[in-house]
Design brief:
- With 94 residues, the chain is mostly beta strands.
- It has a single domain, classed as Archaeosine Trna-guanine Transglycosylase, Chain: A, domain 4 (Roll), CATH 2.30.130.
- It has one helix at residues 29-34; strands at residues 4-7, 21-25, 39-44, 52-64, 71-76, 82-88.
- Helices cover 6% and strands 44% of the residues.
- The model has no long low-confidence stretch (mean pLDDT 87).
């Protein structure tokens, strides 16, 4: 069951690689730590592109981001990233 949704955009300024690592700030640390071992959903916001929900993956662990204060990396379990065959649109009928 998905307990967490990660926002992602293809042109992210962070070191995000949806199938490997997700870069996030300290404000979300507790929520992401609670998601370790669970599947998360990936969502692309309206301003970032047209996709909506586009994949799921399992978080294997969370580590501090080296050399950057108050940023962390959610490590994605190898082989768990599953892109959707059909993306889930934000609104029906579009």
């Amino acid at each position: 069951m998905v307990k967490l949704v990660l926002l992602h955009r293809a042109d992210s300024i962070y070191e995000d690689e949806p199938d490997a690592v997700y870069d996030f700030p300290k404000a979300y640390l507790k929520a992401v730590q609670e998601g370790v071992g669970d599947f998360v959903g990936y969502y692309e916001r309206v301003k970032a592109g047209p996709r909506g929900y586009f994949a799921v993956a399992r978080i294997s662990r969370v580590i501090p981001k080296a050399g950057v204060a108050d940023r962390y990396l959610a490590m994605i379990e190898p082989g768990s990233y599953l892109p959707f065959v059909h993306e889930v649109l934000r609104r029906a009928g579009r």
